[in-house]
């Protein structure tokens, strides 16, 4: 499968380049960076920390999308929406691990999915997506007698909060309770907040050091507490998940998919 990495010089971009090179069934055919990036004109293999591969980092995504089967995208929300429009023009796979997406961004991605095969997830990890299924089941089983709090910690350079993974887990909990996360979430607490509203889902975001990603969903009841935790120890697991998603999406019809679809968890969640 011929793949393009956008945001090639970023932390995840470099990891994606290495992961594509290590996957025998894939080939790196393009690498994209923003205008003005010092990586422009360099060999993508070198940018990824390895030997040259004959692929030059460019600021022109349309040129490389035209010769690709899919694009791997862990960039920024506005950039992702722009890449989605180009992926739709090229009729290729667009795997999105970008976080911090708004409702407006999601609406534009869904429009692009009429022509592209989009796989979007707040987390590309198998373990996290299995965790989401457990959270959904626990939320449905335990009911409102148990308060739900989601605690996440990431490295000091992360710019959005709560993390995309925390929101993915929050959505899973909300689905289990058959309620809207938008209308039943608490994102911040400060000062005299009063009693905790029944049925709401709370979020706490911690930042520091080089933490790749820790997420804990707490179900706190009277006299007992259940905690479900996932700890990401190596960023390469997200890159491997993204490639798995691209390969899964390649033979699919245009549409909007998630990692639950890729892993066969969507059918189980609805059954």
Strand order, largest beta sheet: 3-2-1-4-5-6-12
First-last Cα distance: 33 Å
The number of distinct helices, counting runs of at least 4 residues, comes to 10
Order of helices and strands: EHEHEHEHEHEHEHEEEEHEHH
What does the main sheet amount to? 7 strands, parallel
In angstroms, what is the radius of gyration?
Answer: 19 Å
**Strand fraction:** 15-25%
In percent, how helical is the residue content?
25-40%
Overall shape: elongated
| Record field, number of beta strands | 12
* Average pLDDT over all residues: 94
Content-based structural category:
alpha/beta
Low-confidence stretches: none
Write the layout of secondary structure elements.
Elements: E1 2-6, H1 11-22, E2 27-32, H2 44-47, E3 57-58, H3 61-65, E4 70-73, H4 77-90, E5 93-96, H5 103-112, E6 117-120, H6 126-142, E7 147-154, H7 164-177, E8 185-186, E9 201-207, E10 213-221, E11 224-232, H8 236-249, E12 255-257, H9 259-262, H10 265-270
Parallel strand pairs: 1-2, 1-4, 2-3, 4-5, 5-6, 6-12, 7-9, 8-9
Antiparallel strand pairs: 7-10, 10-11
Helix pairs in contact: 1-8, 4-5, 6-7
